[in-house]
Design a protein that fits this description.
heterotrimer, A alpha+beta (526), B alpha/beta (437), C alpha+beta (185), B: alpha/beta, Rossmann fold, de novo design (two linked rop proteins), five-stranded mixed sheet, 11 strands, globular, C: 185 residues, alpha+beta, Arc Repressor Mutant, subunit A, Glutaredoxin, four-stranded mixed sheet, elongated
């Protein structure tokens, strides 16, 4: 492969050297200079239409659109000098002349790039005295609502549907100041990845119906996490308000999901706020389960498991840490996984809503659990059954009769289990920290987004205490400690740690080595 | 020819010689008049020699940009293994301009010949003639001419028996001024919205269908045949003012003038003589007030400037305007400059493709302010706002439609500020019309 | 809530038809063995990409049906392997494709400045008066005429040029309007 030529230039007084073909905007990012822009997005082809990114290149006759101009040796570029600032001020003024004063009622408020840049560099007044253009809001179908009055015609949504989703369901209609985004009558935005246009929209023109009027952006707490709804493992930001998960949005990861996540995953967060939970540790007292202290519950569970053959029916939603600890108290274990249709995002290599709809199928298999359509098939007569994270919905629970005792470790009490000896309530995916392994063997960290209710505890903490009570290992204080033990005892996980995994993840030693599948900066012109 | 009038003796009719001559529209009629001899000659030459002849002649693009045609053709690299394309820009939509319409409806074979020569010179086997959808008569005659030329073997897979392939296709536009911009034309041809493209890449590198493309105006292509037949020197010598502007130019004269029509004069012709002598001067009882010499995108000239102008690329620039497309619009003292400029702004607001923020919003905003001033609702801040908007609309967009909207506003306020201020101060516009004698 | 109106001048009608609801089913135009299909099939090979035949296909559609309906767009989209939304984006860009039925005679009057200063607006008003169409862009009650203002028609020296369907008529004055209309069936 021919060596890439490197180009050296100066941006806002900072020297930067980048490969030939890099745009000025991307080069600027590398030295910490953010050039304000709207239509440019690293996951979409370059359009160069908003004209916000115009910069002053010394000795050039005109301002250059930095998203669409490649660097040249020796260029001296100003982003915040008077010429560039005046140009951006002009763009902002023009964008606001027809833009309604909707901030008080617009969902985007607080995370709106028009607000942000106007506050930073725009005029404090408007000189527009004419009537504003008006178009009624439209339901685009799916999760998307379109408010044309707020649209700045950056065309990110059109380019996403065309070039990334490969389904040109959105267009620019009309011409001039009458232009707006349109779709075809009867052809709704039902593409399984369409809601990404809501994230892409810099303003409140494209909104999520699910999130409509639900919360203000500045009220949200945000945590880095992973979508648990299928085996792709798209990186996400989980957003909560008053301890309720109210939204999930994609987080960029060039190795997994580029900048996107599917609609099904994105909207499937309500279960994280589930209310009907077991919140207290319980032990059987005759016909009932009686709440008790954690110490008693753990001790009771340990005495039931001690010296017995244990079969674990686990959930593939459990973390690597929890599943690892489970393997230390079982002789065999199995899991089942719900399946659905695969829905790829064709414009990104190897990205799809996967058939297997759980976060950690790969991790479960790597740790020794068997995938099975008959979850309790491996439960032998007399085994102690540990139901971990499973609700046993739809399972023929007559098999439970084979178990000598049932210990439930989960967030819900499975309906079919009427004789549980001990119930240890654990946090769900949004309420604890850990790692999961995606279908390509990438281990990714997820962090706690909401407080677990009642007396529930993180799964790894409970299992660590249980193993301690069984005399095997003292309790862990941090999930990273659990992971460290996992990494030192399992060849596939060798060499990994929370520090090295970071928030982009790392592949298992046994996984196929792959480079980034989505470049950080797409779309050079031509 | 001052078509539809009789040719004026001071005209030099090279391209317009057969305007109004119905017989010249057919293949036989055209051949009788020397048609296709230039193509015959060209097909015997090496393409590079044709390019050099055109370079030598000093021919510059007649669509409005005035870029040296030979140089443009030389950007097409031979032997790159990619199909080359020639696009003829017959989208003539610049207000004030109507010369290409005449060329196509009176001398359609001249354009077929020009396209064939041009295609051959740049290594293209296919030429598309993009004609605006409103030009029903040119579309008819061009389609007929192409049909006749194919039938006679002049073009096709064995052009004039030389074994070389030249295909010419007529492509009908659908109503968009912006499709006269070369990259927008290419997008429109490809079946897209007529959005201009960012350059680079330039058409000669990546044009229509992603392949190397040259786009030329109708008049430019038709000028090539006479250059080949009479020699580059002949063309170069037709220049009254400066050697950078050679040959003849068709001027579309319209507005408040005695003899509107299409005129052909040599580069460097004195504008004063042109307006008052050749074109007959103002209408009875009226006086010229302003002239826009190159289609509405160029700066408005005061009559003092116009009367000092020599009609060529550099000459108009020297008098604070541009030759542009040669659409000469005369505005007399019965017109309100504000109303005229407001209507020009409305034109641009209609035609903006909507890509760039400054153009999409600025053209409409400019129009609204101007119409408000025209209707007596203007304020003193409006003029400053208009000039600010014009500044924002200049040099910051993908194409120059935005700049073209700003230009008449800036030149209008500069040279006719009194009319704006009068309306703002509440004085209605009174046309000055002397009693007809 | 009624949208605010812009001030001044003759209103230039927005040719969009978002409020127009078509009640007639689209009859396919490009059926196998039809003249239209043959015409399109001959056009497609002129271009290296099928999509380039879009504008020509839309012209054939409008010629056959009088306007470009959603159904027509869907038919063309399918033939050229495009999405209907894409085709609609193209159709709404260009002013000459009618997105709703128009009168039997579609009258376009140029009123851009070179014609504007030669009385074009009076010509447009004369057409409105004599056709009895209530406003620009509105079809006359007898269904025969729709009058609109258009931008420069490229015949500025022959002010005011007017197009009536495919006929391009030069040098129209208000006085000539009645006889022009009378000549139409």
């Amino acid at each position: 492969m021919p060596e890439t030529k490197m180009i050296s230039l100066t941006i806002e007084g900072r020297p930067v050297t980048v490969p030939e073909g890099t745009t000025i905007l991307e080069a600027a990012k590398q030295v910490g200079v953010l050039i304000p822009h709207y239509c440019y997005h690293p996951g979409l082809p370059v359009a160069g239409v908003c004209r916000m990114c115009l910069v002053d290149v010394e000795k050039a006759p005109k301002l250059a659109p930095s998203c669409a101009t490649t660097v040249a040796d020796g260029q001296v570029i100003h982003v915040h000098n008077e010429k560039s600032l005046e140009a951006r001020k002009g763009v902002l003024e023009m964008l606001l002349i027809n833009h309604p004063l909707d901030c008080p009622i617009c969902d985007q408020s607080g995370e709106c790039e028009l607000q942000d840049y106007t506050f930073q560099e725009g005029r404090e007044d408007s000189r527009y005295r004419e009537p504003k253009r008006f178009n009624p809001a439209e339901d685009f179908g799916g999760d998307v609502v379109y408010v044309p009055n707020r649209c700045i015609l950056c065309t990110r949504c059109v380019r996403f549907m065309d070039d990334v989703a490969h389904d040109p369901a959105l267009n620019v209609s009309e011409r001039g100041d009458r232009a707006l985004i349109g779709k075809f009558e009867g052809k709704d935005l039902t593409h399984p990845w369409a809601a990404n246009v809501v994230d892409l929209c810099p303003v409140g023109a494209l909104l999520s119906k699910d999130f409509l009027n639900k919360a203000r952006a500045w009220e949200l707490d945000r945590t880095a996490s992973v979508c648990p709804n299928c085996t792709q493992g798209c990186n996400v930001i989980m957003e909560t308000r008053e301890n309720q998960v109210v939204r999930m949005r994609p987080r960029a990861n060039e190795y997994v999901n580029a900048f996107f996540m599917c609609d099904w995953g994105r909207l499937n967060y309500r279960w994280m706020n589930e209310k009907s939970r077991v919140e207290l540790p319980m032990v059987r007292d005759g016909a009932n389960l009686a709440p008790t202290s954690w110490e008693r519950a753990i001790a009771s569970a340990a005495s039931i498991l001690h010296g017995k053959k244990v079969f674990v029916a686990a959930s593939p939603m459990l973390s690597n840490e929890a599943l690892f600890l489970l393997t230390q108290l079982m002789q065999s274990g199995a899991f089942r996984v719900v399946e659905g249709d695969e829905a790829p995002l064709p414009g990104v290599k190897d990205l799809a809503l996967r058939r297997e709809r759980a976060a950690n199928v790969n991790g479960a298999e790597a740790l020794g659990f068997r995938k099975s359509r008959d979850l309790l098939g491996g439960l032998a007569q007399g085994d102690v059954l540990v139901v971990a994270g499973e609700d046993l919905d739809g399972i023929d629970t007559s098999a439970l009769g084979r178990a000598s005792a049932v210990v439930v470790i989960g967030s819900v009490l499975p309906a079919g289990v009427t004789n549980a000896a001990v119930v240890l309530p654990i946090a769900n995916f949004a309420e604890e920290e850990g790692t999961v392994t995606n279908l390509r063997g990438r281990v990714q960290r997820f962090t706690q987004a909401r407080q677990a209710p009642g007396e529930t505890r993180p799964s790894w903490l409970v299992l660590g205490d249980l193993l301690g009570a069984l005399g095997q290992r003292s309790s862990f204080f941090l999930p990273s400690d659990v992971f460290a033990q996992l990494a030192s005892s399992n060849k596939a996980f060798a060499g990994l740690s929370y520090d090295t995994i970071g928030f982009k993840g790392l592949p298992l030693a046994t996984a196929e080595a792959t480079g980034p599948k989505a470049p950080l900066a797409m779309g050079l012109t031509g | 020819m001052g078509y539809p009038h009789q040719p004026h003796q001071r005209e030099t009719t090279v391209l317009s010689r057969y305007f109004g001559v119905k017989d010249a529209r057919t293949l036989d009629g055209w051949k009788k008049r020397g048609g296709y001899q230039a193509l015959q000659k060209a097909l015997d030459m090496a393409p590079a020699d044709i390019v050099n002849a055109v370079k030598e002649s000093g021919l510059r693009g007649r669509g409005g940009a005035g870029f040296p045609t030979g140089m443009k053709w030389s950007f097409m690299k031979p032997g790159d293994g990619k199909p080359h394309y020639l696009c003829c820009n017959a989208d003539e939509s610049e207000p004030g301009t109507f010369k290409d319409r005449e060329l196509m409806r009176w001398t359609p074979h001249a354009l077929v010949e020009g396209c064939a020569i041009g295609a051959y010179a740049i290594g293209a086997e296919t030429a598309y003639i993009y004609i605006r959808g409103e030009f029903t008569e040119p579309l008819y005659w061009m389609n007929e001419a192409v049909k006749e030329a194919y039938a006679a073997g002049i073009i096709g897979k064995n052009a004039m028996g030389t074994g070389k392939r030249i295909d010419v296709h007529v492509h009908k536009g659908a109503g968009a001024y912006i499709c006269g911009e070369e990259t927008a034309l290419m997008n429109s041809l490809e079946g897209r919205r007529g959005n201009p493209r960012i350059k680079p890449p330039f058409p000669a590198v990546s044009g229509v269908f992603g392949m190397p493309t040259t786009i030329n105006n109708v008049e430019t292509l038709i000028a090539v045949a006479p250059i080949l037949m009479n020699g580059a020197d002949w063309y170069k010598n037709m220049s009254l003012s400066n050697p950078k502007s050679t040959g003849t130019k068709l001027y579309s004269v319209c507005g408040n003038i005695e003899r509107p029509g299409t005129y052909e004069v040599v580069m460097g012709f004195p504008f004063r003589d042109f307006l008052y002598d050749v074109c007959g001067g103002p209408l009875p009882g009226r006086k010229f007030k302003a002239v826009i010499p190159g289609g509405v995108s160029v700066p408005i000239q005061s009559m003092a400037e116009a009367e000092a102008t020599l009609m060529d690329y550099e000459g108009f620039v020297a008098q604070d305007s541009m030759l542009g497309s040669g659409g000469v619009i005369l505005i007399d003292d019965a017109q309100s400059m504000v109303a005229v400029i407001a209507r020009i702004a409305r034109f641009f607001a209609h035609e903006s493709c909507a890509q760039c923020t400054q153009c999409r919003e600025g053209t409409a905003w400019t129009t609204k302010i101007l119409e408000r001033i025209r209707d007596g609702q203007g304020t003193t801040e409006d003029l400053d706002t208009l000039l600010d908007i014009a500044e924002q609309m200049t040099g910051k967009t993908i194409c120059v439609l935005s700049d073209s909207c700003a230009t008449p506003v800036v030149s209008g306020i500069k040279k006719f500020r009194g009319e704006f201020e009068a309306l703002i101060q509440g004085r209605r516009f009174h046309p000055v019309i002397a009693a007809v004698a | 809530m009624t949208p605010p109106e812009t001030l001044g001048g003759l209103k230039s009608p927005d040719h969009a038809s978002r409020d127009h609801v078509s009640h007639t089913q689209h009859q396919p135009v490009f059926v196998a063995d039809s003249e239209a299909r043959r015409e399109l099939d001959e056009l497609i090979p002129r271009y290296p990409q099928k999509m380039a035949a879009l504008l020509p296909a839309l012209w054939i559609l409008q010629r056959e049906r009088g306007w470009v309906s959603d159904g027509g767009m869907a038919e063309v989209a399918k033939l050229l392997e495009l999405t209907p939304a894409y085709v609609k984006g193209v159709v709404t860009f260009y002013t000459m494709y009618h997105q709703h039925p128009v009168g039997k005679y579609f009258i376009q009057v140029c009123t851009t400045s070179p014609c504007g200063i030669c009385g074009a607006e009076e010509v447009a008003r004369a057409f409105l008066r004599h056709t009895k169409a209530g406003d620009l862009g509105v079809t006359s009650p007898d269904g025969r005429f729709t009058v609109i203002e258009v931008e420069c028609l490229g015949a500025c020296g022959f002010a005011t040029p007017v197009m009536i369907n495919e006929d391009f008529i030069e040098s129209v004055t208000p006085e000539k309007v009645p006889q022009l209309l009378a000549a139409l069936a």
